[in-house]
Structure formats: C-alpha cells, structure tokens
Amino acid sequence: MPSSALRPETWIKATPAGLYCEPGDFHIDPLVPVPRALITHGHGDHARPGNERVLATPGTIAIMRLRYAELAGGSLQPLDYGETITSGDVTVRLVPAGHVLGSAQVVLDYHGTRAVVSGDYKRRPDPTCEPFEPCNCDLFITEATFGLPVFRHPPDRIEIDKLLHSLSLFRERCHVVGVYALGKCQRVLALLRRAGYDEPVYLHGALIGLTELYENLGVSLGPVLPWTDAPREALKGRIVLAPPAATTDRWSRRLPDPLVAIASGWMRVRQRAKARGVELPLVISDHADWDELTATIDEVAAEEVWVTHGREEALVYYATRKGYRARSLALTGFEEDE
Amino acid sequence: MNRFAALLDALLFTPSRNGKLRLMQEYFATAADPERGWALAALTGELVFDAAKPNQVRALAAARVDPELLGWSYDFVGDLAETVSLIWPEAPGGEGHVPTLPEIVERLKGASRAEVARLIEPWLDALDATGRWALLKLVTGELRIGVSARLAKSALAEWGGVAIDRIEEIWHGLPPPYQPLFDWLEGRRPPPEIGDLPTFCPLMLAQPLDDAEIADLHPRDYLAEWKWDGIRVQLVSRGGEKRLYSRSGDEIGAAFPDICAVMAPDVTLDGELLVIRNGEVASFNHLQQRLNRKTPVAKLLRDLPAGVRLYDMLREGPEDLRGLSFAERRRRLEAWYARAPRPALDLSPLVPFTSWEELADLRDGARERGIEGLMLKRADSLYVAGRPKGPWFKWKRGALTLDTVLMYAQRGHGKRSSFYSDYTFGAWRGDELVPVGKAYSGFTDEELRRLDLWVRNNTVKRWGPVREVRAQIVLEVAFDSVHRSTRHRSGVAMRFPRIHRIRWDKPVREADTVEALEKLLT
C-alpha cells in the first residue's frame, strides 16, 4: 500500500449493523435490514431477510429466494464471480470463497487500495462449490471460526470412512448424521458418493428444499429420499441426514435405534462432542482450520488484517506476531454452529 | 498404534455396553498378535508405566508451539492430553516410522519418567491426532474411556465363545500379551495351565429378594448373615504369593498393605472389606477414602485401618472347597479361623433365626452403621460363579426416602439421548431450594416420557445442555444412606439415590428440608 494511500478504517467501518463501506454506501452481511446489502453467502447469520436492495452471486440469490421468498429483499441483483460493478468510487467484485454453493469473498477497490472481505471460507476441495480464490490485497478481513491451533481438520475421506465403517459394524442401527441444511448436507452427500456409497440417503424435511436446489443448479448428489418415505424398519443400516439439533431430540425417536453422528469442525474436541451426546463425531467443516486461516493471511499478502468473528484473539495475536497490523472487530450476530 | 487409538476413540463415544462389546470383539478378531494382547492389557488396566507427569507433556508441547496459543487452546479444550494431541504441529507428509503398540510398550517398559518424555516425542511426530491422544492417555496413566476390566474380559469371552469365569480363573496367572489365551480362544491350543498361582476365583453373587418372594422360601434351608456396607473382596494366598482382589477381579493389594500383611498362607477367603476402628465399622465414606488411594500414606493407614469380615472359604491348602455345601465351607472357615486367628480379619457372624418374621424384625432393628441388611444363603449351596437364582439372596433393609423438588434436568446418553432423564433435585433451606442430589433411574418408561414432556414445557432457563425447570414437581427419592460431602453445596450427599415416586399431587412447599436430610447422616 503506498504511503499516500487511505487508511482502511476511513472507508470501511465496523458498525452495529455490520461492516459498512462508506464511499460505496452499502453494508456487507448486515445484521439488520439496510437499504443496500452485499451478501457473501446464504447462511442465515450472513443472509438476513428484509433488505431493500441485495447484491450477491446468483447461487446466493437462489438460496435466499428459497429461504425467504418475497422477504429475500426488495430487489435482488445477481453478480457473477469475477464480474465487477461500481458503486460510488468503489469497484466491487465477487470471487469464490469455497464455503458453500454461491459463497463469495468481496473484493473492494477504492482509490488504489484493495480490501477483501473473506466471508466464511474454506480451502480444501469441495465437490459442491467453487474453490476459494486467494486475492492479493492491502486489507484482509477474515473470519476466525476455528481460530485456535487445536483446530486442524483431518482429510474428509478419513471421516467418511469412519461413517461407512460404523455402518458396516452396526447394520441394525440407523445412522443419523447431523448436518447444516445449507452446504454441509450436500457436501456430505457428495463425499459419500465419491467414497462409492450409492445407496439412497434419507433426508429430514428441513434439508430437502436446499438439496433439490443444488441438484437444479447442476450439483449431482445421487439418490436421496425423504425419510418419511421409508417404513421405520427399512431405515436400519441406512444413513439419514438431519439438522444437528434434531439428531438428539424427539424427532430421532422415530428412527430405529439411531446412532448419532454430527459432521462439524467442532467435533475435533472430544468433550464438546461427548457433551452433545454424539456417538460418532465426524470432523467435516466448511470453515478454514487454523493452518488454512494462517496460510491464507500470508498468501494474500495484506499489510493489515481485521478479524470479524470466531476466536479472534488467537488469530490477531498470530498475525501481530507475524508483523501484520491486526485487530479484532468482534462483530456480533454470527453463530458458533456450523 | 493408530488402529488401537481408533478403538479407544470409538469406545469413548459409544455409550452402550453392547456397542462397546462389539467394537472390542471386532478389534480382537482383526488385530494382529501381539498388538491385540497389549491392547487387552491396556483395556484391563494391566499395562502400567512409570507415568509421565502432565507438566512434562505440557513442556513438550510448549517447545513446539507458541505458549500463548497453547494456553488459549488448553482453556478452550480443557484436557491437557487432548490439547497437546490436537495442537501438535504435523510434519508435511508425516514424519518417521509410525510406532506399533508393541514397540511402544517395549520401549516404555522400565523407562524412567524422564526417559518417557524423551521417547514419546518422535512418536508424537509420527502419529495422527487420535494416535497422539491415545499415546498421551497411555503414558499419563488413565484411559478413562468407560471400559472396565471386566467388560474387556466379557468381550474377549464372548468373542472366544467361552464363559467369562473361565477367563477370570486364569487371568492373573497370565502375563500380557496373553498369547496362550488368544491361542486357546482361537482353538489352536488347549486352555492355558497356570499352575500354583494366586489367581482369582470368579465370585458367586446373590439375587435381590423382595419381601413378597420370601414366603416361598423355607427358613430351615437358609443361613443368615449381616450384609455389610463395604466392598466384596477375595483374599488369595498360594505358592508363597498373596493377592487381594476386588469383586471384578482387579488386584487392589497395593492399596491395602494392612490387609496383605495379615493374610494367612495357602487359603482363598471371601469377605467384606471395611474400615474398622476399635471393633466398629466406619461409614462407607471412610472406606471410599482408602479406595481412592492407590498407595496409602502412613497416616491414612493409622486413621482408617482396614479390616475384612470373612464369610466364605474357597480353598484350603491344595483343596478346592467350592464343590462343598455352604454349611460345610462355613464349618471349615470357622475351624480354620479358630486355629489361626489374624488381626484385622474376623468372621462375619451367622444370625440365628427361626422364622422370616423374626428375621425381618432383626433386619429392621439393626440401624447400626455398616449394616445394609441381610444375606440369606442356602445351607446346601455349592459355590458357583455368577448369579444363580435361588441359592443366595441379599435382603436389603428398606431404603431411606425424602421428598425433594425437581430443579434441573439434563438429557441422557445413548438410547436416552432425546429424553431429559437425569434429574437434579433439591431440598428447602429456608425459602431457598438447595440441590441435594442427582438421579437417573427408578422410573418407568411411561413416567420418563411424562417427565420429559413436563421438563420441556416448564423450562425457565437453559445452561448449555441443562434445563432449569419451574419448582413444581415433588420427587420422592430413595437412597441407602447419607454422608457429609464437601463437593455438594448442601454439604451432604446421598448414596445410590433413585426416584422412588413422582408426587405429581404434592405441593412443593411440603417437600423436605436439608435439615431433615442431615438428621439421616450416618
């Protein structure tokens, strides 16, 4: 960044409503309805309903339409990956974040300086979405959901094999896997298919709409059925995907001897998994782990790093030690769960 | 090692007994020798090293990662071995030779505490996160994966298609990695001969007796003894060696040098381990303090002297007495004791009676400490391992009960993971409810469904997995005794609390007070 360049805090601000780009006059993932919102991806804590005008990738817009129908926003403007649009003196570009289908980083160019807002992101390959694309920048605004060095996600294949092994050992038990409806569900399906599992997978009602949407957008996930289509006995030895909270709640009583698995980066910590009553923790995450968070900071070569949400203190500490100007924005309103 | 680590990991997360058995059986069926033998030793607590101190483990990690980040991570994870296993930096593409369990055991055997730390460092580099976790659990002492030695032996017995007591009988005569045992269970060799060794005799256990069932029994057929509130032990001395076994066949002699010192040669005795001071039995709480110490200090031995109240004799010299009747074994025990009385060992007296009514009065009148009720043993009963129905009964004194108020509920595990089945209940102290205990059992499935629904509809606050509920339900709780406890806010703790009745009808103001509970202190 040239010394004459603007300090980023003069044009990007952390406000109670979320990140705000002043010269462009728009918020990014606002917490409350705003006139102009740029949405990084479709998860409920980033894409909220009721904004007047929304700019997002076509994938994210499709997801918002499905979730919120007419409340998705007054006008919904799609912007393809790599295309640019200008707002005031700010040029906006969306590039893949690798988090879920449609997820984007926001690249903002203003008077010769560049800021990148990562949104939620991950670095490892995911067959259901475009891979993360690192962009050099002056300011990198990053998430830190798994911002502690104990979080190092193992290869997906190991975790999927754990599930398949359990299925072969406990054939009389229904394997119910807790997954987020958007992203995790479809990724687990795709990973199962890659591992050669071609049996039908049963879905909790809350997962069906988004899974159909993925299929419609060209992501092939193999045979899936609503769990209600099968008689109770037929679910023995089968995989049922459900929202995490449902796996240990009353809904699960309708399954034959359910064995509860949860697919989440948090499953890395045993006590956390045990406290949730999980029998088969699967460390499958849609967020960057510690190694990926730190490597990405180095890769984008920003001078300044802001950390939005998660375990910010450790990542800020790390970045500071490495010579970056780093600070925590401690944005609220983002969920711990994934 | 990674294979064994995966087994430990799966066992930790599997709540059901059957699930654990299946995991262990699959492992025994597929792991190679001698790895599975060493694994069996680890599962049964027979694999003991000069344990590494947590500080050494922490220091190893602090040399590899930033101490500040290590500190935050430890705060988040809460368990040192797990933190270190997760945070350990992984060399790209893995580094070095992944150690096998037998290699690890071989190198750690006889290593001093300082050497242990040096040995494990390259292993931590080579193993994956689960492997590191298992290794650190092994070298720091306890696995804590919810598998008892007996459960591991049950898995082995079921897998090998033999009764568990056949394994228990020879268990203490075989050193790990138990090759002759696996050879026998896989049909390659006859059962191992263990010779003249002080091995455990699988115990004969009693059935609980309901007051209603007793009418069908004849008082003449039975001998009665007090049921002592201690733990069942077996004293074995044979071939010049002495062992003190717990009811599950674990060797606990190191914790009770006072008992080992007075054990007589060449006998196997069955009795109750108690803390006995000046001829009087101390509370179970005192015994618990002794049990908590793997090697007691002199002061503890002096303040809480252990004793064994003997009630059966299984071997005398070379003779196996288990084929004799109980009456005959009792005569042999009394004769032996008359010839060779030992300090700290005494005989559990027979309780004479002529009718069940008389015996019931004796039972209910005996409020002194250390007596839980009565044991009834058929005079003609042979000593048979397991819990046969008929020959032996335990006839417990009626439980104590207290009306308490349901305060918090938490979801259970396994089959109960969708039910609020763990209940914390309180008693009044003035206008305030103070938690006095926690119970998970005593209700029917139907009652559980009703309570679960009630908890969901009457939650006032959530504390993570715990729900605080409206103070509206009186739970009549049954328990065996009450003792002082510094761990509970109320200052008292119940032994074996269970839900006796759910008093949907009773107003909470009429529930009992902490004071009422304190009056029941023993």
What does this structure look like?
The complex is a heterodimer of chains A (338) and B (522). By secondary structure, chain A is of the alpha/beta class. Chain A contains eight helices and 19 strands. A seven-stranded mixed β-sheet of chain A has the order 7-8-9-10-11-18-19, covered by helices on one side. In chain A, strands 1-2-3-4-5-6 form a six-stranded mixed β-sheet. A six-stranded parallel β-sheet of chain A has the order 14-13-15-12-16-17. In chain A, helix 8 (312-321) links the parallel strand 18 and strand 19 (325-328). Chain B is α+β, with helices and mostly antiparallel strands. Helix content of chain B is 35%, strand content 24%. Chain B is built from 19 helices and 20 strands. Chain B has helices at 2-13, 17-30, 35-43, 54-62, 67-77, 80-87, 101-108, 113-126, 129-139, 149-160, 164-171, 179-185, 257-262, 284-291, 298-303, 326-339, 356-365, 445-457, 514-518, and strands at 207-208, 222-228, 231-238, 241-246, 267-277, 280-281, 306-316, 319-320, 345-347, 371-378, 392-396, 400-411, 420-429, 432-439, 459-463, 466-469, 474-479, 481-484, 492-495, 498-503. In chain B, strands 3, 4, 5, 6, 7, 8 and 9 form a seven-stranded mixed β-sheet that branches. In chain B, strands 12, 13, 14, 15, 16, 17 and 20 form a seven-stranded antiparallel β-sheet that branches. In chain B, strands 1-11-10-2 form a four-stranded mixed β-sheet, with no helix packed on it. The longest helix of chain B is centred in the first third of the chain and has 14 residues, at 17-30. Chain B is globular, with a radius of gyration of 26 Å. The model of chain B has no long low-confidence stretch (mean pLDDT 91). Chains A and B meet through helix 6 and helix 8 of A and helix 2, helix 5 and helix 6 of B.
